[in-house]
Structures are given as structure tokens and as C-alpha cells.
Write a structure and sequence with these properties.
Blueprint lengths: L5 E3 L5 E3 L2 H14 L4 H19 L4 E3 H15 L1 H13 L1
Parallel strand pairs: 1-3
Antiparallel strand pairs: 1-2
Helix pairs in contact: 1-2, 1-4, 2-3, 3-4
Length: 92
Amino acid sequence: MKIMKCVVKRKGHEERFSERKLYRSCYCACKSAHLKTKECAKIARSVTSEVKKSAGSRKCVTSAYIHKAASKALKRRNRDAGFMYETHRDIS
């Protein structure tokens, strides 16, 4: 199975998909929700894996797709972390 290689950003340009960037954003959302370090790492790993799997064999996906998929996955694992992830774009 191929994994996604690029992300189409909000302004229309393409960027190489960074698993590390997705992991970090999920991890930071968990830390913002006051979860312990080990729990943050565990959740971030599983969410990253789930998002990659949900993209299937698509070569490119939109950043909105990744944001929505990660937000849903986080909310299933920790409601507060999901909220922090979902609303981060509103304040940044």
C-alpha cells in the first residue's frame, strides 16, 4: 500500500507530508489538555497511524482532511485533547 506523499495546504500549494508534524500537533494538543507525557505519546502515535491509514492509497490529501481525521481520532481518545486540536487553528 502506498502512503500519502503530499498535503495540499489551505492556500493551494503542496507540501511533503510530515508524519512528524502530525505527531507533534497531536502530542501538543494532549499536553495542552494536561495529559501525562506517556499518555500524550501513546495517543499521538495511535492518531498518526489512524490518519495515515484513513488516507489509504491516496497520493495527496488536503490539510483540511488531515485536520478533520486527526480531530475525530483525538476526540475518541480524549475529548479535551480533541477540542484543543480542533480549535488551535481558530487562534493561531
